[in-house]
Amino acid sequence: MSENIVEPDTADTEPTVEEIAEQKQVRLDKRQRLLDAGIDPYAVGLAVTDTIPDVRSRFPDLEPDTATGERVALAGRIVFSRNTGKLCFATLQAGDGSRLQVMVSLAEVGDESLERWKDFTDLGDHVFVEGEVITSRRGELSIMVSNWAIAAKAILPLPTLHKELSEETRVRQRYLDLIVREQARQTVRARAVAVASLRSTFASHGYLEVETPMLQTMHGGASARPFVTHSNAFDTELYLRIAPELFLKRAVVGGIERVFEINRNFRNEGADSTHSPEFAMLEAYQAYGDYHQMADLTQEMIQNAAVAVSGSHVVTWADGTEYDLGGEWDRLSMYDSLSAAAGVEITPQTPMAELKKLADAVEIEIDHPLPGKYVEELWEHFVKGGLVRPTFVMDFPVDTSPLVREHRSRPGMVEKWDLYVRGFELATAYSELVDPVIQRERFVAQAALAAGGDPEAMRLDEAFLTALEHGMPPSGGMGMGIDRLLMALTGLGIRETILFPLVK
Length: 504
Prior knowledge:
This protein has 16 helices and 18 strands. By secondary structure, the chain is an alpha+beta fold. It folds into two domains: 17-152, CATH 2.40.50.140; 180-329 and 389-497, Bira Bifunctional Protein, Domain 2 (BirA Bifunctional Protein, domain 2, 2-Layer Sandwich), CATH 3.30.930.10. An eight-stranded mixed β-sheet has the order 6-10-11-18-17-16-15-14, with helices on both faces. A five-stranded mixed beta barrel has the order 1-2-3-5-4. Strand 2 and strand 3 (99-105) form a beta hairpin. Helix 6 (174-180) crosses helix 7 (182-204) and helix 11 packs parallel to helix 12 (371-382). The longest helix is centred in the middle third of the chain and has 23 residues, at 182-204. It is found in: Cytoplasm.
């Protein structure tokens, strides 16, 4: 049998529940026998001095049957094992998925240690090994073990490593996904690299990172249905935040003129390929900026993240598709593009009756009292599906954007854009509404919608208005979903980009 690294299991079917239960009992018995022999099956204080990827990088091209004379001490998970007489082979896997062969021989470790290896080790166990770096007769980089110990005894067996895990298993038992699948490990690394890149870009523009409350007495900053909880200490109803916006604006009022936060948001709404009830959000605010500057910053951030993750503005998705995030991105007027696509001029002054007539003509059901909602739904029907390149969709209806400054030259619109990438909304930005009088009027209108039964309408937030009345400088603000950024960079669905997604 070849000494090269091979897959640990060639079974065509997954073990049954009964077979897993039997294997578990066998492993529990081994754990107990280890304890009875005075051996800790979960050892601590192991003298690990090297790693599998480090050893592989230091010895890339050794000739077959080479003894280096260099000793290493490392640990890994057993993913292949073959016990044959006086020489046992195993493959250890590191957390990053890199693998290395180890050889446990009678001549090096002695009869008692060799028998313990054969008796006590199983696939999935973490083991510590110490020995000389060599190559086998077939040229496989290996460690000739002189000393070993069980680092952590696995009580349950690994899944069949050469077979795809089901999507359900991948999201419910992400730890198995990380052990088995390289794409899962790559996604975690890509997310970490992308977030580090975002922070680096912000730092280069003089932004400060802060943290704002997740438990709030008043939910706001977005139109969304909140999660509700109760504080025993304060004997009051609290909300998991739907957005950090109103607190970050308080920071701007206080003089933190360039501020951002990357943290969790919670919205008690549907879950699908682009939505999760719990998700990571980036929001940023810049005093004396506007939505044009936030568009420039957002494009720079995403392009920098693409380079950090893939080395290029052209990213390769999990299915092999290449997507170009480079160049200057298009900026498209919502009303102008809708008018062109629908073949009829639509403006903020278009009567509701005409909007309803157009919606009925294309069989779109819209049940909402605001004309702006019809405009947005009609735009999604007529225009959204045709967007291929990253595109900033500019200038939204005023009645659907209660926290946004009115457009400086186009009445009935606000200075807001949504960024579409891959056909979904990735980010949004405003020229912020900082006039406290107008903001109060907008909140009152939202409160009326809430009183009428709209669960997503905002409440009148007196504490935020008090802050605004102390003077907030004209500002630009933006928000972007971190999970959706990873979707844009990897081509994966949202449940794949979240390490531990919420599942029922």
